């Protein structure tokens, strides 16, 4: 598949990343089929896209006409065949579990055109292992966006063991057309580049609090105001989703070893369904003001 031939994109998953990627692709002028397994999930994703586009229009980052036209290019769907049947590229952003993703690819392989590229937004899982459940491993790569996709510039384009150079070049051209900056990851390795750095940062921050070395506010104040990152470490965990961060950590722990042992504080948050901004409660309470980090 050449980049010039792409006009229809299927995004699988309408959660935080799925709806954000859909929004980015629709803003770039593509017809996007956004699919999830339940009407309420798809509707929720669609409402989030509408909210975000209106917010960008309110802030004059695009006109209301552009916002409305982008929303018109989004088709929310539950039926997988309708979603991928005429797709040139399928971007998958379903939950970060190997078995769920493999099941999705097995189903999608049946319905997607033979020439379509499959790109996974996995945060850490093996691109090679996922590609091997399809009949097109050379047309399979990672396309990893960051949260929130509409605001974050970077996209990692990850090489699986079977990925063809042509696939990487097409996906890099697509990322550029989305007005993003693609960075090629040469080898399939847990967490790729960014999460290999960022997820241990969030985990170490949690261990500091767990071990009574500092409070959440002290750690976040240091990360944000002294180290100069755009968010505190705990604020970032809440932005990413504590469940997503934990999945990445568990996989890095399994493959890379002890240094990546997840902190129990993060596990507790996930057990209590305090997943961060998306549930209104995480390390901070987003129903009552969110992160208030002392400068
Ligand atoms: N669409 C539209 N508007 C949005 C939005 C979205 N998706 N998300 C937030 N906003 C709005 C907010 O509602 C707020 O609006 P308000 O001013 O009316 O209250 C406004 O944007 C805040 O924007 P600002 O530019 O004023 O705020 P910042 O300068 O702090 O920028 C940020 C926000 C871009 C999110 C910045 O804080 C940032 O870069 N944070 C770091 C995020 C990051 O590192 N993400 C990557 C995490 S790793 C990952 O995702 C990988 C995964 O695999 C785990």
Tell me what you see in this structure.
The structure is a single chain. By secondary structure, this protein is an alpha/beta fold. Helix content is 46%, strand content 13%. The chain has twelve helices and eight strands. The chain has an eight-stranded mixed beta sheet with strand order 3-2-1-4-5-6-7-8. 49% of the residues are buried. The protein binds 3-hydroxybutanoyl-coenzyme A (3HC).
Which segments are poorly predicted (pLDDT under 50) over 5 or more consecutive residues?
none
The string of secondary-structure elements, in order, is EHEHHEHEHEHEEHEHHHHH
Bound molecules: 3-hydroxybutanoyl-coenzyme A
Number of helical segments with 4 or more residues: 12
> In one word, what is the shape?
globular
- Supply the CATH architecture of the largest domain: 3-Layer(aba) Sandwich
Number of domains: 2
Name the CATH superfamily assignment of the largest domain. NAD(P)-binding Rossmann-like Domain
Protein name: enoyl-CoA hydratase
Keywords: Fatty acid metabolism, Lipid metabolism, Lyase, Multifunctional enzyme, NAD, Oxidoreductase
Organism: Haloarcula salina
Family: Belongs to the enoyl-CoA hydratase/isomerase family.
């Amino acid at each position: 598949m050449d980049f010039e031939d792409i006009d229809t994109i299927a995004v699988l998953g309408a959660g935080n990343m799925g709806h954000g990627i859909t929004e980015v692709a629709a803003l770039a002028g593509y017809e996007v089929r956004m699919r999830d397994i339940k009407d309420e999930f798809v509707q929720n994703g669609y409402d989030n896209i509408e909210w975000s586009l209106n917010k960008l229009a309110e802030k004059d980052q695009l006109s209301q006409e552009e916002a409305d036209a982008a929303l018109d290019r989004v088709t929310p769907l539950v039926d997988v065949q309708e979603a991928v049947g005429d797709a040139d590229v399928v971007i998958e952003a379903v939950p970060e579990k190997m078995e769920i993703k493999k099941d999705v690819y097995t189903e999608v392989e049946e319905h997607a055109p033979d020439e379509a590229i499959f790109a996974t937004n996995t945060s850490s899982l093996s691109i090679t292992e996922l590609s091997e459940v399809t009949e097109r491993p050379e047309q399979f790569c990672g396309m990893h966006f960051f949260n929130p996709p509409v605001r974050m510039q970077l996209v990692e384009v990850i090489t699986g063991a079977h990925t063809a150079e042509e696939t990487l070049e097409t996906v890099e051209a697509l990322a550029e057309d989305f007005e993003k900056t693609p960075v090629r990851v040469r080898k399939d390795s847990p967490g790729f580049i960014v999460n290999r750095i960022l997820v241990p940062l969030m985990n170490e921050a949690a261990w500091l609090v767990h071990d009574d070395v500092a409070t959440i506010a002290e750690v976040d104040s240091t990360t944000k105001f002294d180290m100069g990152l755009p968010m505190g470490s705990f604020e970032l965990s809440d932005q990413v989703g504590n469940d997503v961060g934990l999945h990445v950590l568990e996989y890095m722990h399994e493959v890379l070893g002890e240094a990546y042992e997840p902190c129990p504080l993060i596990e507790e948050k996930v057990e209590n369904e305090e997943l961060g901004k998306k549930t209104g409660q995480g390390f901070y309470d987003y129903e009552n003001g969110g992160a208030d980090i002392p400068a």
